[in-house]
Design brief:
This protein has helices spanning about 1-15, 30, 40-65, 70-75, 90, 105-110, 120-135, 140-145, 150-160, 170-190, 195-215, 230-245, 250-270, 275-285. The protein has about 290 residues and is mainly α. Helix 1 (about 1-15) runs antiparallel to helix 3 (about 40-65), helix 10 (about 170-190) packs across helix 12 and helix 11 (about 195-215) packs across helix 12.
Length: about 290
């Protein structure tokens, strides 16, 4: 875990040091002080855009998993101007903005624009997952009074509403994007599980949705290219369902969802040490 976190930190430092967060920036200072030579062609430019957002997704996940320093706090002094990533350089390159500014801040302020590529939606969902995890570092009452809780809840719901429906040809990234948003919902609402009825229902809904997505997308271990973050997402869902299954004896729907997730945790723990650690921790809670 420590080694993985270290490599993620180094990757982010390299990305920021190379000013990959300033691609197509309108900031005159950074335009005149570029570290890298201009990209040779559209393919190289989109590769740089992909590299930045891939590193940011990785760091968002690590920050959420370890409750470590927020990635966003690292970026506050280095505003992200780079456009959201695109899926196809041949079909979508022309859609990139000629000049770009405050991409990440605009999204967090509720001005996300029309970037709805699969890669962009994945990046956005990871940002919200990290934000939902780090928002609870402060006092619970002040979070509610500041309006930050309601605003973040609205961002999660808004992004959820524009995600394409899952189908038989849905990619692994699309599945992970859906799961990340449900995980963000749990992270945001579960601390208020016993205090706010809406938080109780949204946490429960998200946990069951994760189970349904798992059931529909992975009949066996060979059908899902497993992203390690899914182990964290399954753990969140299990931790939400466990106390309810215990307290609501006879609720077959909840018990079935929990059993399904635990069975997949067991299968993948044989292939991935992160899943093994998560499963061990869950068994201690049973």
């Amino acid at each position: 875990m420590l080694e993985g976190n270290h490599h993620a930190d180094v990757a982010l430092s390299l990305a920021l040091g190379s000013q990959l967060q300033r691609i197509r920036s309108t900031n005159a200072f950074h335009v005149s002080n570029q570290v890298l030579a201009p990209p040779a062609d559209p393919i190289e430019e989109t590769e740089r855009i992909d590299a930045f957002w891939t590193v940011l997704v990785l760091n968002n996940n690590w920050s959420a998993i370890q409750a470590s320093q927020s990635t966003y706090s690292t970026l506050q002094n280095s505003a992200v101007d780079t456009p959201w990533p695109i899926d196809s350089v041949h079909q979508e390159y022309i859609m990139l903005p000629v000049a770009s500014r405050t991409t990440l801040q605009d999204f967090l302020d509720g001005r996300s624009g029309n970037a709805i590529s699969e890669k962009a939606l994945h990046a956005k969902s990871s940002v919200l997952f990290e934000r939902a995890s780090s928002i609870h570092n402060g006092d619970k009452r002040s979070i509610l009074q500041s309006g930050a809780f309601t605003h973040l809840d609205s961002l999660i719901d808004s992004l959820q509403s524009i995600l394409p429906s899952l189908g038989g040809t849905s990619s692994d990234r699309h599945i992970v994007t859906q799961m990340l948003l449900y995980a963000a919902m749990i992270k945001l609402h579960r601390p208020f599980f016993h205090e706010i009825e809406r938080s109780y229902h949204k946490s429960l809904f998200a946990a069951q949705a994760i189970a349904r997505l798992t059931r529909s997308s992975a009949v066996n271990t060979n059908q899902l290219h497993i992203n390690p973050i899914i182990g964290v997402i399954w753990t969140l869902a299990c931790e939400t369902l466990m106390p309810l299954v215990i307290s609501q004896t006879g609720n077959n729907e909840l018990a079935t969802s929990l059993d399904l997730l635990l069975s997949y945790m067991k299968r993948f723990s044989e292939l991935n040490p992160l899943f093994m650690v998560a499963r061990t921790d869950l068994r201690k809670q049973i």
